Amino acid sequence: MEKHIKYFLVPLLLSFMIIAFVTAETETAAETAEIETAAEKTLGDAVETKIEAQEESVKSQNTIDNLTDETRDMVQVYRNAIRKTESLNSYNQQLAKLVKQQKLSLNSIQRQIENAEETRRSIVPFINKMITTLEKFVRLDLPFLLDERRQRVSTLKQIVNLPDITLPDKYRRVMEAYQIEIEYGRTIEAYNDTITVDGEEYTVEILRVGRLLMTFQTSDGALSGIWNKHSKAWRKLPSEYNRSINQGLLIAKKQAPPELIKLPVTAAGKKL
Questions:
Q1: 111-149 tens-digit pLDDT
Q2: Range of 162's domain?
Q3: Same domain, residue pair 197 and 180
Q4: For residue 256, is it within any domain?
Q5: Considering only CA atoms, which of 209, 206, 210, 207 is closest in space to residue 193?
Q6: What is the pTM of this model?
Q7: Are 134 and 178 in contact (CB under 8 A)?
C-alpha cells in the first residue's frame, strides 16, 4: 500500500511541478509583455516628447525669424524716419531762410509803398507844372502845327484828372508830348497853311527848319516870306530868296536831294 501511495504521490508531485512551471512561464510572459508594453509606452512617450520638442523648436525658430523680420522692418522704418527727419530739418531751415527773406522783402515793399504814396503826392503837381510849361512853350514857339500841338496839350489837361488812368501812364503821355516837341527841333517839314501877311490872306506852303526859322511861299512861287519872332508876324522877303525856299520845300518833301541853300537866318537879338 505504501508502494501504491508512493506511485500516486510521484505523478501528483510532477503535476504540481508542471503546473508551477507553466504558471511561472505564464507569469514570466505576462511580465515580459508588461515590460514590453511599458517600454513601448516609454519609447512612444519619448518620441512624442522629441516631436513636441522639435515642434516647439520649430515654433521658437519661427518666432525668432518673425522677430528678426520685425526687428529688420523696425530698423528700416527707423532709418527712414531718421532720413525724413534730416530732410525735414533741412527743408525747415531753408523755409526759415525764405521766410526771413520774405519778411525783408515785405518790409522793403512796405517802404516802397510809403515812398510811392509820398511820390504820388509830389508827382501830380509836377505833372501839372510840366503841362503848364509845355502849353507856354507852344504859345511862345514858332507857330507851326498849332492846332495839332494845342490839341495835344488840351488832351494832357484832360487825362491828368481822369481817375481811370494810372499815374505812370499820365506821366508817360506827358513825356511823349515833350519828346515830340524835341523832335520838331531836329527835323525839317513842309506843309500847306493859310496865313495873313500885311492884312491879306494867302494859301501857302510852309517850310520849317527845326526851330531855327519858318518861311513860306505861294503856290506860284512869286511871293516868299518869313516868320518874325520879334514881331510875331509874317514878313515878306525879297524875291532873291524864292529859289532857295522853293528848293528847301522840295528837300523837305523828299522830292530833291539835300543840298546847301541860302535862307534868311537872323542872329540872336537882331530884328529882321
A1: 776 676 677 777 888 999 999 999 999 999 999 989 999
A2: 121-184
A3: no
A4: yes
A5: 206
A6: 0.54
A7: yes
- Total domains present in the chain: 2
Of 168, 184, 200, the residue that ends a domain is 184
Q: How far is CA 88 from CA 66, 83, 91, 135, 257, in A?
A: 32, 8, 5, 65, 77
86 part of a folded domain: no
In the structure grid, which three cell numbers stand for residue 76, read together?
Answer: 528700416
Q: Are 162 and 173 in contact (CB under 8 A)?
A: no
Backbone angles phi, psi at 202, to 5 degrees: -135, 140
How far is C-alpha 48 from the geometric centre of its chain's CA atoms? 78
What is the pLDDT at residue 268?
41
- pLDDT, greater one: 108 or 3: 108
Q: For residue 130, how many C-alpha atoms fall within 13 Å in the half-sphere facing its CB?
A: 19
Cell digits for 240?
A: 532873291
Q: Can you tell me the mean pLDDT for 182-205?
A: 92
**Residue 149 domain-assigned (yes or no):** yes
Question: Which cell is 117 given?
Answer: 504814396
161 and 208 inside one domain: no
